[in-house]
Amino acid sequence: VVENEIQARIDNIFSNLERLEILSSKEPPNKRQNAKLRVDQLKYDVQHLQTALRNFQHRRFLREQQERQREELLARTFTANDSDTTIPIDETLQYNESLQSAHRGMDELIGSGTSILQGLRDQRVTLKGTHKKILDVANMLGLSNTVMRLIEKRAFQDRFLMLGGMAVTCVIMFLVVQYLT
């Protein structure tokens, strides 16, 4: 009851401070700064009172909770073989098996990622050789510079496609790792 009364008075003080703030803005310019400073100081003090009240309420709540827990503990009757003393081995075993399965899945995922990366490297070497041979043949045939630029532009675009595919693959691997573990 006392706490509620104190809270009501603090709320009343806050509403009065809001009115004071409005009135301080209507003061003459030479007194306005001083009045505003005083209102701000009062607000600061009331906020400290509000915080102190909350701290008191929190400490009281903790004390009451500790008392309830103490009473529950003292009122509890213990038996020789209580059912709460069982060890959940089945749940732990199942959790361990799930972790092992996820670990194996991750190893397989990393292995497949490594083989894909090796395949991409091999394709890169093959494509570089092919590109070089095509350039040599094109130079032999005397293709125009514009055709050569188009081929180089296409190779540049293909590089971005490859990098984009690699990024998407990495994102998918990350999401799989994130949601499987």
UniProtKB/TrEMBL annotation:
Gene Ontology MF annotations: SNAP receptor activity; SNARE binding
Annotated localization: Endoplasmic reticulum membrane; Golgi apparatus, cis-Golgi network membrane
Keyword RNA-binding among record annotations: no
InterPro entries, per the entry: GOSR2/Membrin/Bos1
Pfam family, one: V-SNARE_C
The keyword Ribosomal protein is assigned to this record: no
Domain of life: Eukaryota
Cellular component GO terms held in the UniProt record: endoplasmic reticulum membrane; ER to Golgi transport vesicle membrane; Golgi apparatus; late endosome membrane; SNARE complex
Subcellular location, principal: endoplasmic reticulum
Membrane topology annotation: Single-pass type IV membrane protein
Single GO BP term: protein transport
Membrane-spanning residues: 160-180
Gene3D superfamilies: 1.20.5.110
Keywords, in A-Z order: Acetylation, Coiled coil, Endoplasmic reticulum, Golgi apparatus, Membrane, Protein transport, Transmembrane, Transmembrane helix, Transport
Recorded family membership: Belongs to the GOSR2 family.
Record function comment: Involved in transport of proteins from the cis/medial-Golgi to the trans-Golgi network.
Protein name as annotated: Golgi SNAP receptor complex member 2
